[in-house]
Amino acid sequence: MKANTLRDQALVKRFLVYGLLLLAVALAWVQSRRQPMVNVAAVQAPQAAVDEALLVLSRPLLLPADGNPFPVQGASRPTAEPVPVTEPLPAPPPPPEAPDLAVEIVGRMTTVDGKEEVYALHQGQPLKLVTGQILPNGYVVKRMAPDAIEFEYPSMNAMRRVELPPTPKFEVR
């Protein structure tokens, strides 16, 4: 309840301040719209008084300066040294590339429970490839599909894809 009364008091004060401000602006505007009734002939000064005032206020014309009126003390003007000619910069080296994948797919096999396993050779070392496996050369097996395996080199965000040969069709009797 007390908060509402404080808020109401602040609202009344604001209303009074803005109302008085609006009233002052309105009065100033009305006052500026009135045209003064002044006799211009009575206000004009005699020509002699105008000439005398101009003589008192007149001053000699400005003359151009003989030199710099604000010389720099104790400093001499620096001489510009010739800019040495430099050799053009060599071309930047090419951006780094991911190392060679060096994985040879040896074969694949379907296990008894229906999962497919893929076998590969990396520098003569046999590997069983599994999704998420990190190879010795830094590549990660990202995704294994029935037709291809995708490898990622995480430090350079490079992707390599190795196509798998089609599964041979065997006659079932």
Fold and architecture overview:
- Helices cover 27% and strands 21% of the residues.
- A hairpin with a 3-residue loop joins strand 4 and strand 5 (148-153).
- The chain is elongated.
- Among the domains are: 1-29; 103-163, SH3 type barrels.
- It is an alpha+beta fold and 173 residues long.
Brief write-up:
The protein contains 3 helices and 6 strands, in the order H-H-H-E-E-E-E-E-E. It is α+β, with helices and mostly antiparallel strands. The strands form 2 sheets. A 3-stranded antiparallel β-sheet has the order 1-2-3, with no helix packed on it.
Low-confidence runs:
none
How many strands, what sense, and barrel or not for the largest sheet? 3 strands, antiparallel
How far do the termini sit from each other? Answer: 93 Å
CATH architecture of the domain at 103-163: Roll
CATH class value of the domain at 103-163 = Mainly Beta
Secondary structure class reads alpha+beta
What's the helix-strand series? HHHEEEEEE
Quaternary structure type: single chain
> What is the number of helical segments per DSSP (H or I, 4+ residues)?
3
How much is the radius of gyration in Å?
48 Å
Helix percentage range? 25-40%
The mean pLDDT is: 82
